[in-house]
Automatic annotation (TrEMBL):
It comes from Morus notabilis. PANTHER family: ARMADILLO-TYPE FOLD PROTEIN-RELATED, ATAXIN-10 DOMAIN-CONTAINING PROTEIN. InterPro entries: ARM-like (IPR011989), ARM-type_fold (IPR016024). This is Coatomer beta subunit.
Length: 410
C-alpha cells in the first residue's frame, strides 16, 4: 500500500464505510421474500460498486474487494432473472442466488474491515513514532482501543504484532516528556490489548516497564488500568509488583489528598488481597495497611455495614406489622435480600471506606493467592492490628466483629 496516495485515504474510507453499512443491511435481510427490505441495500452496493471501481483499482489491497463487488453484481442479476419465471426450478434458483448474495455480503464486510484495520494500525504506528499532532494521536488511540475492545480477531492481532504497536504504546507511556493525556490513552490501549488476547500480550506487560509507569503516574486513569490488569493477569502481576518494590507506592495512595485516588487505591489493594501471595500481603502489612484502613473506616466516608444491617433489622421487624410488606417477606426472603443489597450498594457509594478492614479480610479469606494456613495467620494478624489502631474499645469491638463475621456479612 506504499504506492497508494495518502490523499485518497479519506475518500476511500468514506466509500468503504458506505459499502460496509450496505453489506450489513444486506446480511440482516437475506431472504428472497423480503424484497422491500433488501432491495435498498442491494441498490446501494451496486451503485457504490460503480462509483468505487476507479478508486479501489488504485490500491492492490482492495483488488479482492473489487472482485467481490463484481461477483455480487452477477448474483443479483441472476436473482432478478429467476424472479421473471415461476416453478420449482426458479424457486431453487432464487434460494441459491440469495444465499450466494448473503455470503458475498459477509465477505465484503470482512474485506472492508481488514482494509480499515490495516490503515488504522499503520496510521497509529506512524503517529506514535512522530507524536506531532496530539489531537490526531488521541483520536487514533481511542479508535484503536474501541476496535480491539470489540473482541479477538486474528488478522488484527497479526497487524498489531507486525507493527509492534505494544512496544510503541509502552514507550510513550513511559515517556514523562509526553503529555498526561497521551500517556493515559496509551495506558487504556494497553489494557484493551490485554483483554483482546491476554495470552499474547501478558508477557510484554510482565517483562516491560508498563506496571512501574502506571504506578508512577498515579492518576485515576492509570490506577483504573492497573486494577484491570491485576484482574486479568492475577497472581503473576501481583508477584511482579511486589518484586519490584512498588507496593509501598500503592499503599501511600490511600493517603492521597484526592478522594477518587484513595478509592481507586483501595480497590487496587482489594484486588491484590484477592490474588496476592504471602510475600505481597506481608509487604502491605509491613507498610501499616491495617492502621490506614482503620483510619479510613473511622473517617466520615467510612462507617460499618453492621450498623446498617442493625438499622435494617429494626425496620424490617416493624414492617412485618404492615400487610403489604409482610407479604413481601414471605416470598422466601428474596425481596428483603434484594432490598438489603440495594441499601448496602447505596451506602457504599456515599461511604466508600465503610467496613474497609473487613472487606480486605474477606478478600484474603476467599482469594486465590494464599494457602489455608496463611489465611488463618493473616486473619489473626489483622485482629491484632485492629486492636492496636483503634482509639476506643467500642471501635475495636465493631471492627473485630465485622472481621470475625467475614464473608457472611460482606
Amino acid at each position: 500500500m506504499d504506492d497508494f496516495p495518502k490523499r485518497e485515504t479519506p475518500r476511500v474510507l468514506k466509500v468503504l464505510e458506505a459499502l460496509k453499512q450496505a453489506s450489513r443491511d444486506l446480511q440482516a435481510h437475506p431472504s428472497p421474500d423480503s424484497d422491500d427490505s433488501n432491495s435498498s441495500a442491494i441498490k446501494a452496493l451496486l451503485e457504490l460498486e460503480t462509483e468505487s471501481d476507479t478508486i479501489l483499482s488504485k490500491d492492490p489491497n482492495l483488488s479482492t474487494l473489487s472482485q467481490l463487488l463484481a461477483r455480487l453484481k452477477t448474483h443479483v442479476e441472476t436473482l432478478q432473472k429467476s424472479r421473471a419465471h415461476h416453478g420449482i426450478s426458479s424457486f431453487v434458483a432464487r434460494r441459491v442466488s440469495t444465499y450466494s448474495i448473503s455470503r458475498v455480503a459477509v465477505s465484503i464486510g470482512t474485506e472492508i474491515q481488514a482494509w480499515i484495520d490495516r490503515e488504522s494500525v499503520e496510521n497509529l504506528a506512524r503517529a506514535l513514532r512522530e507524536r506531532e499532532n496530539e489531537d490526531e494521536l488521541v483520536g487514533l488511540l481511542t479508535q484503536f482501543e474501541d476496535r480491539v475492545s470489540e473482541g479477538f480477531n486474528r488478522e488484527l492481532q497479526d497487524l498489531v504484532l507486525k507493527s509492534k504497536i505494544f512496544a510503541s504504546l509502552e514507550s510513550v507511556l513511559c515517556d514523562t516528556g509526553s503529555s498526561k493525556r497521551i500517556r493515559e490513552r496509551c495506558a487504556l490501549a494497553i489494557g484493551a490489548l490485554i483483554r483482546f488476547n491476554k495470552d499474547v500480550f501478558v508477557g510484554q506487560v510482565l517483562m516491560g516497564p508498563t506496571i512501574k509507569a502506571l504506578i508512577t503516574m498515579s492518576s485515576t486513569c492509570s490506577m483504573k488500568v492497573l486494577c484491570g490488569l491485576i484482574r486479568s493477569i492475577k497472581s503473576p502481576l501481583v508477584d511482579e509488583i511486589e518484586s519490584n518494590g512498588e507496593l509501598p507506592r500503592i499503599i501511600n495512595l490511600l493517603n492521597n489528598q484526592y478522594l477518587q485516588m484513595r478509592v481507586l487505591a483501595f480497590e487496587c489493594v482489594l484486588e491484590i488481597g484477592y490474588f496476592g501471595r504471602k510475600e505481597a500481603i506481608d509487604a502491605m502489612m509491613e507498610e501499616g495497611l491495617i492502621k490506614i484502613l482503620v483510619e479510613l473506616q473511622r473517617s466520615e466516608l467510612g462507617g460499618d455495614l453492621i450498623g446498617l444491617e442493625r438499622c435494617e433489622g429494626e425496620s424490617e421487624s416493624e414492617s412485618e406489622n404492615e400487610g403489604e410488606k409482610s407479604r413481601e417477606v414471605s416470598v422466601g426472603g428474596v425481596v428483603l435480600e434484594r432490598r438489603r443489597e440495594s441499601r448496602e450498594r447505596r451506602f457504599l457509594e456515599s461511604h466508600p471506606f465503610a467496613s474497609c478492614v473487613a472487606r480486605f479480610a474477606v478478600q484474603l479469606e476467599v482469594g486465590e493467592g494464599l494457602r489455608q494456613r496463611e489465611k488463618r495467620a493473616f486473619k489473626q494478624q489483622i485482629l491484632v492490628g485492629v486492636r492496636e489502631a483503634s482509639v476506643s474499645d467500642a471501635e475495636a469491638a465493631t471492627i473485630l466483629a465485622e472481621v470475625l463475621w467475614g464473608s457472611s456479612m460482606i
